[in-house]
Amino acid sequence: MDNVRINKGFPNASLDAETTPLDLNKLLIKSSVSTYLFTVETDQWENVEIFKNDIAIIDRSLKPKKGELIAVVSGDQFQLAKFNNQTQPWGVVTATIHRHRAK
């Protein structure tokens, strides 16, 4: 006899589908010991879809490539910049998190 699955009533997506839990650490962070999170405090980067109050994920273990977004130290502050041979990177921006709803 073949095994046959019979559903009664409407299908329940939460019971019928097997899902793997999402782990944001695994998705967004390559090296936890060299990764830092910073809040973006300016709207200067809106043209690349990074907005004020977004969270920038910065990895200090990565070597930046030309044109990548990096964090630099300017005085006593961190700033974002596009990498070129004249910029001294503090770390590479690997991702940003944007809230669509205020806290």
Structural account:
- The protein has 103 residues and is mostly beta strands.
- The chain has a single domain, classed as Umud Fragment, subunit A (Ribbon), CATH 2.10.109.10.
- The chain contains two helices and five strands.
- The protein has a five-stranded antiparallel beta sheet with strand order 1-2-5-3-4, with no helix packed on it.
- The protein starts with 12 loop residues before the first helix and ends in a 6-residue tail after the last strand.
- The mean pLDDT is 88.
Could you provide a short overview of the structure?
This protein has 103 residues and is mostly beta strands. 9% of the residues lie in helices and 28% in strands.
Which descriptors would you attach to this protein?
Umud Fragment, subunit A, mainly beta, five-stranded antiparallel beta sheet, 2 helices, 28% strand, 103 residues
